[in-house]
C-alpha cells in the first residue's frame, strides 16, 4: 500500500508540477509579449513623431515656397513696369538728342512735342556741361548724354534692389 500511496503522491506532484510549469510559462510568455508591445509602441511612437515632423516641415516648405513665388511674381511685374518706364525715358531723351544733333527747327510741332515731354527729365541736367556746336545749328548736347547715363544708373540701382528683394533666402 505504501507503494500505491507513493505512486498517487508522485502522480499528484507531476500534475502540480505541470500546472505550475504551464502557469510560469504562460506568465513568462505574457511578460515577453508585454515587453515587445511596449517596445513596439515606443518605436511606433518615435516613428510617428518623426513622420509627423517630416510632414510638418514639408508642408511648411511648400507654403514658404508658394509665398516666395508669389512675391517673385509681383516683383517681376514691378521690374517689367520699371523697365518699360525707363525704356520710354531713354527713347524720348535719344529723340531729343537726335533732334538737337541734326539742328531741328524749334518751331516744328514734333520738336516742340518732344522738347515738352522731355523737359521734366532733362531740366535737372540743363547747363551741367557745355554743348559743342558746329556751324549751321548742329550741336552735341552733352547734358542729354549725361542725363541718359544718370537714368541708366538709377535704372540699374532699382533693378538691383528688386533682385535683392526677390532673391530666395536659403537656410544652412
Task: Pick out its properties.
single chain; 172 residues; 3 helices; mainly alpha
Give the uncertain stretches in residue-range form.
none
Structural class: mainly alpha
Instruction: List SSEs in N-to-C order.
Output: HHEEH
Reported for the largest beta sheet, the result is:
2 strands, antiparallel
Instruction: Name the beta content range.
Output: under 5%
What's the overall geometry? rod-shaped
Q: Gyration radius, to the nearest Å?
A: 46 Å
Total strands: 2
Mean pLDDT: 83
Quote the distance from N terminus to C terminus.
91 Å
Number of helices: 3
**Strand neighbour order, sheet with most strands:** 1-2
Helix content: over 70%
Summarize the structure.
Helix content is 81%, strand content 2%. The protein has 172 residues and is an all-alpha fold.
Describe this entry's structure for a reader.
Helices cover 81% and strands 2% of the residues. The protein contains three helices and two strands. It is rod-shaped. It is an all-alpha fold and 172 residues long. Helix 1 (2-101) packs antiparallel against helix 3 (142-166). The model has no long low-confidence stretch (mean pLDDT 83). The protein has a two-stranded antiparallel ribbon.
